C-alpha cells in the first residue's frame, strides 16, 4: 500500500489532500488545480442553504475545472458555509441599507427544514442580500486562495515529476 492511500492517514489527508495529489499525478496542471480549489472555496460558502454542490458543479462545468476536486473543497467547507450565511446576509443588508433579519442560524435552519417553500418565500430578499455580500467577498477570496495554493501545488507537481523521471 502506498503512503498516500494508507488507511492510517488522518481523515483530512485521506479526504482532502490525497484526492488533490491524485489529480496532480494524473496530469492536471498546478495552475488549473489552484483555480479549482480557489473557485471551490468561494462556491463552497455560497450563502444559500442546499445549493453549494450545484453552484460548484455548474462553476466547474462552465470554467472547465476539475469536478472531483471542486466537490471535495465544497464539502470540506460545510461548517464555514453554515457559519457565514447569516454574516453574509447581514453584510448585504448593511450594504443595501435594509433592516437586518432577526434570529440565529439555528432558528433559520429549523424554519428551513420545517417548510423549505415557506422559508424561501420569507427570506428570498435576505438571500439576495447574502449573495451580494458573498459576491463582493468571493472575488478577492478566489485570488487570495489561488495565490496561496499555487506555489504549493507547483512544488508538489515538480516533486511528483522528479519521482517519475527517477523511476523511469
Topology:
Elements: H1 11-25, H2 30-43, H3 52-63, H4 67-76, H5 78-96, H6 105-114, H7 116-167
Helix pairs in contact: 1-4, 2-3, 2-4, 2-7, 3-4, 5-7, 6-7
Describe the structure.
Helix 2 (30-43) crosses helix 4 (67-76), helix 2 (30-43) runs antiparallel to helix 7 and helix 3 packs antiparallel against helix 4. The chain has one domain (3-167). The model has no long low-confidence stretch (mean pLDDT 88). It has helices at 11-25, 30-43, 52-63, 67-76, 78-96, 105-114, 116-167. The protein is elongated, with a radius of gyration of 19 Å. The chain has 7 helices and no strands. The chain has 168 residues and is mostly helical. The two termini are 20 Å apart.
Based on secondary structure, the structural category is mainly alpha
Oligomer: single chain
Average predicted local confidence, pLDDT: 88
> What overall form do the CA principal axes indicate?
elongated
| Percentage of residues assigned to helices | over 70%
Total helix count?
7
Number of strands: 0
Amino-to-carboxy terminus distance: 20 Å
Give a short account of the largest sheet. Answer: none
Give the topology string: H per helix, E per strand.
HHHHHHH
Instruction: Provide the number of structural domains.
Output: 1
Rg to the nearest angstrom? 19 Å
- Poorly predicted runs are none
Proportion of residues in β-strands: under 5%
Summarize the structure.
This protein is an all-alpha fold. It is built from seven helices and no strands.
List keywords for this structure.
168 residues; 79% helix; 7 helices; mainly alpha; 0% strand
Amino acid at each position: 500500500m502506498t503512503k498516500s492511500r494508507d488507511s492510517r492517514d488522518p481523515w483530512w489527508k485521506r479526504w482532502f489532500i490525497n484526492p488533490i495529489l491524485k489529480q496532480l499525478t494524473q496530469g492536471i496542471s498546478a495552475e488549473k488545480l489552484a483555480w479549482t480549489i480557489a473557485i471551490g472555496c468561494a462556491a463552497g460558502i455560497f450563502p444559500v442553504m442546499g445549493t453549494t454542490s450545484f453552484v460548484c458543479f455548474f462553476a466547474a462545468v462552465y470554467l472547465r475545472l476539475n469536478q472531483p476536486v471542486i466537490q471535495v473543497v465544497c464539502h470540506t467547507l460545510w461548517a464555514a458555509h453554515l457559519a457565514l450565511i447569516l454574516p453574509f446576509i447581514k453584510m448585504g443588508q448593511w450594504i443595501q441599507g435594509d433592516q437586518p433579519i432577526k434570529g440565529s442560524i439555528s432558528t433559520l435552519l429549523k424554519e428551513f427544514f420545517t417548510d423549505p417553500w415557506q422559508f424561501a418565500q420569507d427570506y428570498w430578499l435576505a438571500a439576495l442580500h447574502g449573495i451580494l455580500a458573498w459576491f463582493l467577498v468571493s472575488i478577492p477570496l478566489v485570488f487570495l486562495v489561488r495565490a496561496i495554493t499555487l506555489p504549493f501545488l507547483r512544488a508538489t507537481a515538480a516533486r511528483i515529476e522528479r519521482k517519475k523521471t527517477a523511476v523511469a
